Automatic annotation (TrEMBL):
Protein's UniProt name: N-acetyltransferase domain-containing protein
UniProt superkingdom: Bacteria
Matching PROSITE patterns: GNAT
Pfam families, per database record: Acetyltransf_10
Matches recorded under Gene3D superfamilies: 3.40.630.30
InterPro entries: Acyl_CoA_acyltransferase, GNAT_dom
N-acetyltransferase domain ranges (all copies): 11-170
Organism (species): Glutamicibacter nicotianae (Arthrobacter nicotianae)
Region annotated Disordered, chain positions: 152-175
Amino acid sequence: MDKRSSQLQVTRFSIEQAACLQRLMESNPGYSQRVTSAVPAADAAIEALTALPPTARAEQKIDLGLWLDAELVGFADLIVGWPRTDTVHIGLLMIDGARQAEGLGKQLHEEVLALVQDYPSITTCRITIVDTNAAEAEPFWTSLGYRPTGEASNHAAGDQKSCAWTRPVTSTRKE
């Protein structure tokens, strides 16, 4: 397939598409190894699509898929208005393991920023980086303008710590 003629599209993601997300997660086993010390579980996609942080409600959750023609090449999990009402938390932003370093992560992040424009009360984007994934994740998030807040917590997947990073909600996408 000629990549130049392919079409990228971002859509809301549903639980009915869990098999596509499972394939995406399995294409990126290094992430799971670093964060959970295991390959993605058979139900990793269902967990990602249904998990909520403490105090978050299901209606705050938005999942986005980045599609190249009919293939899922990226996924973003958002919680709008969490942990504060002025914040959108990006719980996961993952790109297909074979498609990394092509700018797809940055493009999906720009789509997140564009979507957040529909929520005028949201002024801050927030992520957490698990310490065992920091060497991989920090350069990417730093390039998008995120900075550490100094807030640290225990990560749900084990003994690791995770650190919060934030940036203002602004989009650099050209319409």
